[in-house]
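Lecture notes, continued. The same structure-token format from the folding unit now serves as the input rather than the output. Read the line below as a description of shape only.
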């Protein structure tokens, strides 16, 4: 099964349904009681939109597989990672940032992360990035093309596509490392149990995560989406099989 990645922009100016409280309540009513509770628990309107957004993406992805989100049996492992108890062969993960929601579905352990560009923080990098990752950022801060960066340009669909070389900004380099690290720890299910400085993301192709001096059995995919950086991490199960993520934009609620 090729992984399926969904994106949804909950900006009310781009998705009118999220400008109407009544319409948002109607959409939430079609989701599970647990998701509705999460939405109500969000204090800020933007947070409620994002919580609803990832809930709708979860429902949409499950619907495509003949599964109802309301009765999917969502539970949590001891490490806090959600799973579907009645569908152990299906893995999913959710993320959001700014006004963008993201969801991934796969047949192996998966983790995803999306981050709005412009949120890079030097103190965060100094505290949480491994030495090799900081060296990658230093190359960007020096005005040079960061080593290992696959030079891309954004196509009409908002996704990366081959293009002319360009210099990578420090913020782009930061968001690239951050989303790759977050996607990795989410895929492993360990989360905060793995200190972020204990492993290093090597950005030269193919991107890989090295932890305890060993390359971990995970593969990575990267996306640029309307001013955001997003990463997907999947557990590897057969190096001879190339998996190509299927990208779906969701709109029209």
């Amino acid at each position: 099964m090729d992984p399926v990645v969904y994106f949804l922009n909950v900006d009310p100016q781009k998705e009118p349904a999220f400008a109407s409280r009544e319409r948002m309540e109607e959409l939430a009513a079609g989701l599970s009681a647990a998701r509705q509770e999460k939405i109500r628990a969000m204090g800020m309107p933007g947070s409620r939109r994002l919580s609803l957004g990832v809930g709708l993406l979860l429902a949409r992805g499950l619907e495509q597989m003949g599964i109802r989100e309301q009765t999917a049996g969502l539970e949590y492992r001891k490490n806090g990672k959600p799973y579907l108890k009645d569908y152990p062969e299906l893995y999913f993960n959710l993320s959001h940032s700014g006004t963008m929601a993201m969801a991934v579905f796969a047949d192996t352990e998966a983790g995803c992360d999306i981050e709005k560009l412009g949120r890079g923080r030097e103190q965060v990098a100094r505290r949480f990035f491994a030495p090799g990752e900081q060296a990658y950022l230093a190359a960007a801060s020096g005005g040079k093309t960061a080593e290992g960066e696959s030079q891309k340009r954004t196509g009409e669909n908002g996704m990366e596509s081959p293009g002319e070389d360009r210099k990578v900004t420090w913020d782009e380099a930061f968001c690239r490392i951050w989303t790759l690290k977050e996607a990795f720890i989410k895929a492993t299910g360990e989360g905060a149990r793995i200190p972020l400085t204990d492993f290093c993301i090597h950005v030269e192709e193919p991107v890989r995560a090295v932890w305890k001096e060993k390359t971990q059995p995970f593969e990575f995919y990267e996306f640029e989406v309307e001013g955001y950086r997003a990463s997907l991490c999947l557990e590897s199960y057969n190096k001879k099989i190339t998996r190509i993520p299927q990208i779906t934009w969701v709109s029209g609620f």
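Point for the exam: The helical segments are 21-29, 33-41, 45-63, 122-128, 131-141, 170-188.
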